[in-house]
Design brief:
Helix content: under 10%
Shape: globular
CATH architecture: 8 Propeller
Radius of gyration: 21 Å
Number of strands: 37
Distance between the termini: 24 Å
Strand content: 35-45%
Number of domains: 1
Length: 489
């Protein structure tokens, strides 16, 4: 692959020790909380001063989310660098302060990807999705591919009909990837999770259909089809040590026959051992047949881990939504199989976005869910008998609409969302609008939104859009726009 270098002679980059905040994976952490607990620069008092720092064209739509490494060493300089992959399978490295493209790494294949890279900070490497059916390991400083020890790692044998749609994840010493079909659900495909053990490259596969087969599915290896794992979050990792790195994947439409002695888990939450060698538990709605018949995927979004509730009879819980517009509260220690939910809440619409979770100063856990034209807030409350329930808290209208909803992120008591034409920030406690990139004085805004969502790191906000642009916003004091004229690259 050819690499594009901005400063070829000077930029032999290596990772420096991290001294600021990284956003190394979709949702900030492997549990996909979408909460940056380290953000202290942006606050409710100054967020209205955000304005465009730069906007660049990536040459193709990145229908995904960037990640960020806070410190990359370039000679005597430390640079914050963004990484984002376009639908065409090209990953870009972008210097976060200036918007300069440092390098790009391209793959080729028959389809598209809407996946997000993940960084392994302990090893100083970057894993990126491709359209060739593989995940590639790169030097994040130069974009050079690193081969051997299992990489590039093949995650599908049928890239013509099976897609790397969800974001990559990293935990437990494994890289996790999931697969689904393309728009239109044309078979053959069998939604599956792939785990690549980083120390030796050993690969384990769990197929949601024909789960007794332990290798990558072929076009004819399973008589059942679909059950794609395509939620934005993909594989989600349990953060509680007692759960020993358990991995969850929410599947889409497909056959479910586990209660009849079968091996198919369509429209289900799968709870898997960290190396995927064993299905530990599962949850399936009782109306799974209707969900399948009506194309109402449970797995249009992924399960979200709730903070531990020490006063609850079920201290470890999660929530799972779906296209059917229901939010389900579940016990992570016992998902309960068919109809195993503890509570079911009716939502304004189906959910295609990734919810965010935050605990306020009083210890109350909040869940934020983005819809096409609104942001909804829910809280988890536990009564004196130890019974926990989800309740609606507030609703905020968005200034624009998005095709299938926005994935919110939380930072320093604020909820940030991307919607058609704007990024907006709301007070996490009451839903009050604090800032919009479309307001006068913000310097410019973004285009339409599909799967794109923002990240908020060290006082800056970054987001891509359907126009093929990547845009950065920052506070006036954090960049040199007072001294230099505004540039759009």
């Amino acid at each position: 692959m050819k690499l594009l270098f901005a400063f070829a002679a000077l930029w032999c980059l290596t990772l420096a020790p991290v001294r600021s905040t990284d956003w190394p994976t979709f949702g900030f952490d492997s549990a996909r909380s979408s909460y940056n607990s380290a953000e202290k620069v942006l606050s409710k008092a100054n967020v209205a001063q955000l304005h465009e720092l730069w906007q660049i064209s990536l040459g193709n739509v990145a229908d995904s989310t960037p990640i960020l490494l806070a410190h990359v060493h370039a000679g005597s300089q430390n640079l914050a660098v963004l990484f984002q992959t376009t639908k065409g399978g090209t990953t870009y490295a972008v210097e976060a302060k200036s918007g300069t493209i440092l390098w790009k790494y391209a793959t080729s294949g028959p389809g598209i990807t809407t996946s997000t890279p993940v960084a392994d900070m302990s090893r100083g490497v970057l894993f990126v999705p491709g359209v060739d059916g593989y995940v590639h390991e790169l030097n994040p400083a130069t974009g050079a591919e690193l081969t051997g020890t299992g990489f590039p790692a093949q995650i599908t044998l049928i890239p013509n009909s099976e897609k790397d749609a969800s974001s990559l994840n990293l935990a437990n010493g494994y890289l996790y990837a999931t697969t689904s079909g393309y728009i239109g659900d044309a078979p053959p495909y069998d939604g599956h999770v792939v785990a690549v053990r980083l120390k030796d490259g050993k690969t384990t596969v769990f197929n949601s259909l024909c789960s007794n087969l332990k290798s990558l599915p072929t076009a004819s290896s399973c008589p059942e089809q679909r059950s794609g794992i395509w939620a934005r979050s993909g594989a989600v990792v349990d953060p509680d040590p007692s759960m020993q790195g358990r991995v969850y994947a929410s599947t889409g439409n497909g056959e479910f026959n586990a209660t009849r002695g079968g091996e198919d888990y369509g429209d289900s939450i799968l709870s898997l051992k960290r190396n995927l060698s064993q299905l530990l538990d599962y949850y399936t709605p009782g109306d799974n047949r209707k969900l399948d018949d009506d194309d109402v995927d449970l797995g249009s979004t992924a399960a979200v881990m709730l903070p531990t509730q020490p006063n609850s009879a079920t201290p470890l819980m999660m929530v799972q939504a779906g296209k059917d517009g229901k939010l389900r509260l579940l016990d992570r220690t016992h998902l309960g199989g068919i109809n195993g939910e503890m509570q079911k809440v009716t939502l304004p619409d189906g959910v295609w976005s990734a919810p965010a979770v935050w605990t306020d100063s009083s210890g109350t856990a909040h869940v934020y869910i983005g819809f096409s034209n609104s942001l909804q807030s829910y809280v988890l409350e536990t009564n004196s008998s130890g019974v926990s329930r989800i309740h609606a808290r507030w609703s905020a209208a968005l200034s624009g609409t998005s095709q299938e909803g926005t994935s919110p992120v939380v930072a320093n008591g604020m909820v940030f969302v991307a919607t058609g034409g704007a990024i907006e920030a709301f007070d996490a406690m009451n839903g009050k609008l604090l800032w919009s990139s479309a307001q006068s004085g913000s310097g410019g805004s973004i285009g339409a939104i599909h799967w794109q969502s923002p990240i908020v790191v060290d006082g800056s906000v970054y987001c891509s859009d359907e126009n093929g642009n990547l845009t950065a916003y920052a506070l006036p004091a954090s960049q040199a726009r007072k001294r230099n004229p505004r540039q759009r690259r």
